[in-house]
Amino acid sequence: MSKRQILLLSSSNVHGYSYLEYAAKDIKDFLNKNKVTDVVFIPYALKDYDGYLKKVKNVFTTWGFNMTGIHESKSPSDTVKSAQSVFVGGGNTFLLLKTLYDNKLIELIRERVILEGMPYMGTSAGTNVATKSIHTTNDMPIVYPPSFIALNLVPFNINPHYLDTDPNSKHKGETREERILQYLEEDGADTVLGLREGGTLLVDGNQIILKGLTKARLFVKGTSPQEIDVETDLSYLLKK
Questions:
Q1: Where in the sequence numbering do the catalytic residues fall?
Q2: Where are the transmembrane segments (predicted)?
Q3: How many CA atoms lie within 13 A of 48 on its CB side?
Q4: What digits encode the pLDDT tens for the residues 183-227?
Q5: CA 236, CA 217: separation in Å to the nearest integer?
Q6: Residue 166 has what pLDDT?
Q7: CA 171 to chain centre
Q8: pTM (2 decimals)?
Q9: Of 148, 70, 144, 137, nearest in space to 109 by CA
Q10: What pLDDT is attached to residue 240?
Q11: Residue 170: its pLDDT value, please?
Q12: Domain ranges, ordered by start, for the chain
């Protein structure tokens, strides 16, 4: 039986809600179920670590949880080893993954989540790095990680901030769907779940449920894209 406890958000900001408000119930339920009181925040996707921590900590403190930043410790690895849970923030996916590699945290986080059941939460870039690779991020490669291989906490890819084509738009460039389909043409390409804004994915052991406010779009090599309703069981994606 897998010990995975993972909550992945498409984004932290959704129109009509304050910061993280749309996912407040999912986050609180997730942490309370796992008896978490202290959360380690990983702000590596942005440069202003202190400012980012302050923004996120204000929200989690209001909810009754303690939060510290991994950058406040002299040893990031020791911090992860003793963490009750981690929350990996959004920003630039390439910067985030490179910094995780630089601090030798890839295997450590994976082991703690997969083998020990340490709860992992990610949003945007933090969701990207939880998947098999960052091949389906929307971000610019402002730095170069040693590999695109990510934490591999789930055996497929996610495209956070997935956008549908606007039939009234005059923009004639590639759509998000076209780009994902082009990715799937490559050898070794993995299944991609397009998480729209407000979408949340809950992994509880061997079960995956789509949560949040919006449907998702699933791309599987060799098949047509399909719409996924909220509360759909996607556990079969773990059996790849």
A1: 124, 139, 161
A2: none
A3: 5
A4: 999 998 989 999 999 999 999 999 999 999 999 999 999 999 999
A5: 15
A6: 73
A7: 28
A8: 0.95
A9: 70
A10: 61
A11: 72
A12: 5-163+193-213+230-239
Residue type, 63: W
| Residue 43 in tokens | 């702000």
- Start-to-end CA distance of the chain, whole Å, equals 16
Pick the CATH number of 5-163+193-213+230-239 from 3.40.50.880, 3.40.640.10, 3.30.450.20, 3.40.50.300: 3.40.50.880
- What does the buried/exposed string (b/e) look like for 207-240 if buried means 16 or more CB atoms within 10 Å of the residue's CB? ebebbbbbbbbbbbeeeeeeebeeeeebeebbee
Tokens of 137: 């991020």
Which ranges of the chain have pLDDT less than 70? Answer: 1, 172, 240
